[in-house]
Amino acid sequence: MIATRVLAIAVLGLCFVAGIVRSEEDPAAALTAQLQGLTQMTGQFVQDQYGPDSDELISVSKGSFSLLRPGYFAWDIQSPDSQLIIADLDYVWHYDRDLETVTRRPVDTGTTASPLQVLGGDIETLRQNYSIASLPGGVFRLVPRGDQAGFKALTLSLTGGALQGMEVIDGLGQRLDIRFSELTTEAGLTPADFAFTPPEGVDLFYHEQ
To answer: For the whole model, what pTM was predicted?
Structure first.
């Protein structure tokens, strides 16, 4: 389950819809343009975790997510273990319900930011920190230019104008395949939906950077 927790942090609720890619746009601009009309989204996910550089299935996790742009998201793993990753404009919280621990880190929009934060619509950040390729069939592949990101590569699969799947290769070569379903962009979310208060009795780990 430790590897599952590491990979859960790597994805951090990267969930959004996409529009039609224009052939005359560079990949960074095309990816950003597809996010302009999105303000919120909720849905379900299933994620398959594979071993380093292999097709050996290690675990299957399921859960739900919510997203409110810019800067708010929640990634709730409900099985086989129970975890919540939730963020506002200031902090990213990781609540491991099984271990009864809460970790808090400041939001980082630089080279160590999560994929969701980096892909929030800043074209210059995308161009500076990622090599982006637009592939046939509505697929984007992002490779960090530096070694401080939490993953080696990120592939987004887009079908019919919506994000249908995502593949993450972490720093150890492990692969996480994520499939999305029951997507809606009219959930009526507000910033208050992403407020988090640690439950009583849990172990707290607060990091300043």
So the answer is: 0.77
